[in-house]
Input
Amino acid sequence: MPTKRLFVAIPLPEYVKDDLLSTIPRGQNRDIRWTDRDNLHFTLSFLGDREEADLDDLCNQVAAIAANRYPFRMVFKGFKTMYKDRRPSMVWAVFRESPSYLEFAAEFGNAMGGDLHTEPIAHVTLGRVRASAGKFARTPKMNHIVPFELDIDHIELWESKFGDYGINYSLIKRFEMRAEPMDDEEE
Output
């Protein structure tokens, strides 16, 4: 049966993409493959390979989880180079730890068999160090950015496809989160 490689994403508004992309130093850095603008996102939960026939049920599960979560705020913290096997592997824009983000991610992991191996770190992958770069790959000093906050009020289900020039992502469906109660409403 055909499958799709899926994950639940928090999309980024265009102004946040602009701000993050403006931090990448000008000039060539052959050690890093920068993330395409359309692929910038937070990963909330990686769901892995799922059968296409199960996609409608999966969307219903994502919708139910999103509908029970209130919007929350993410706060930009800075940049971080991630290492794997003692060599640089990725450049991240990191956001402050958010209990709402962690709980939301855990809910997907528990309910849908998403990634439960590690506690998620709220980040956006800006670039990946090329395998050919070797142990002493240089990661650049990122340009300054004014700290910002990002209100999260919806999530999306995305598909991940490996292509000749890296990974491409495509939107499957958008899901709204629960509306904030009005001050005069009772829960």
